[in-house]
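Hi Y.,

Following your request, here is the sequence exactly as I used it, all 272 residues.
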Amino acid sequence: MKSGTTSRLSLPALRAAGIATVLAFSSGLSLAADASLSIDWFGVSAEQYSGNYVLASNQQQSFLMLASDGGGATAVDTYAASNWAEGLNRLATTPHASATGNTVTFTDPSTQLATAGASLAASATKSGSLFNTGMSTSTQSGTFSLIDSDGNSVAGSITFDVYYDFSVAKPAGTAAQSYAQTAVNLLVTSSNGSSQSFSDGLLSSALAGGAGSNSGYFSWTLNLAAGETASYVLSTSAVAAAVPEPSSYALLGAGLIGVGAVARRRRQTRDV
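Below is the corresponding structure, written out as tokens. Let me know if you'd prefer a different format.
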């Protein structure tokens, strides 16, 4: 006659099943993809000892923060301003992703000219079979002209300097779709038609082990006639995306199947 009592697993069986389950989750489900970027210095200067000064105008900045869980949770934070004010704390966060951004301002100690850059970070944590993403982007722009000590427009050269660093890390044992990426782009144009652009970045899939960091520097000098201007757009981004490796779920499934098999054997033994 069949027994109606609840079947209980032995302690060794529970341990074995538990180990399989823990291995499945520890194979990467709690790890995060991370990307960060920081502008360490952005300077604009006139030729040294020229007696000229740089005048800034048309200051603009904008931020877009996006955090998205594949299960439907999404957070967005946007900001735009006609200034380079410091102290922004932009944030978008969901249970499994986040994006942060801050304005960073710089002041030339010799001329007191203020300029701006950004510090960004993005993170995404693996969860279930979801594709979770964090994305942080920023843009700063402005226009510069040369003046003398009396405030008159003058001819001369103007130099743009940018120093930056970034890092990326992709979770170990994640699917090919998982990645971390950073990018910095600088476009400088003048009212006389000349221009120069620069780009750099890191992508986790191009790095050994899926992780790394780097620092860089770019400089460019423009010659301006009296009354001409030089404008710039500095764009930065940090993106992180995490997807579990299918093998994680295969291992988890094997653990659960093992639990079921042990339970069936226990029931069959009791039914005899």
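Helices lie at 11-26, 246-271.

Thanks again,
Q.
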